[in-house]
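S2.1 Query sequence (Steroid 5-alpha reductase C-terminal domain-containing protein)
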Amino acid sequence: MPTHAPVHVLDNYYLAITFIVTVAYQLIGFSIAFSLKFDKLTDFMGGTNFILLAILTLAMGGSTHPRQIITSIFLMLWAGRLAGFLLFRILKTGKDDRFDDKRDKFWTFLGFWVFQMFWVWTVSLPVLFLNSPNVLAYRQPKFGKATDVIGVIIFILALGLETVTDAQKYQFKQSEAGKQPGAICNVGFFAWSRHPNYFAEIMVQVAIFIIAITPASYGAIPKGAGAYSALYASMLGFIFLTALLMFLSGLPLQERPGAKKRYEKGSNWPAYEKYLHDTSILLPMPPAIWSRLPVIVKRTVGLEFPIYVFDPAKHADQDKLREREAEEGQQGGHEHQNRESTEPMR
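Output structure tokens follow.
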């Protein structure tokens, strides 16, 4: 039995009220971060915003149905873990390099926070809609349908993978091996995927979506109803997250730029080139399989699109290469002279 009838606020899908709350919450975070030049708040405000929206919509909906409760808790678990880990990491490092060219520029820094607003609000859509009056107006199917079970299994595996891979990468960076010049993080799941944490983050949201659409997929909400369309439209959440990681702030900022930087600095490039060849960019799979796949398969269904691929002939800065080669030549010459001057006469 519900604790009370769903509370109607502005609209029957909680879109307006959650958007207003998100904007207000993020603007508070922005004002503090910009005024104090404080990096430690940014990711924490993003993660806790998800928790705020889940609690708010669950409370306003008044539902005690397991599906509404479980999806809300899943969103809070994922967001709480992410916020906690990122806060722990920034407390250890002291600052976030992403904001070195932003934190002193009002509009540029604000732009990041505005983007975070849309990230939080859009990814939360499955839970917002499931807890909304228009969906709760229909009889909810008993929890335990195939979509519920599949979603729960995927969520547990994906959240576990994301937690483990974040820990593996952090521990590697703190280790002696990780602090060596040109170190390559190929430990644990990173031997099977260059970005297993991104894959896991996407699958967490896919899992929540699969559970959330159960009332529509099992006919409790008739086709043609607004609530039916809304639940399926909430796939925009994981689609937006996937697009964000694959085409905006994730892979494009790490793949080609990272390889370019290593190549130009001569930072263990041969080993890194082999790692790129042997390791899937996103989908976890054994290196023995990925390394043998045809290039056309890697560049299509393997998701290693051409925008990520570094070609030294096309993308390397030749001036930097010449400077590095000149420096190495001078160092080699000095070492050779030193060796000659200290050799005993024979």
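DSSP finds 17 helices and no strands in the chain. The chain has two domains: 15-249, 259-336.
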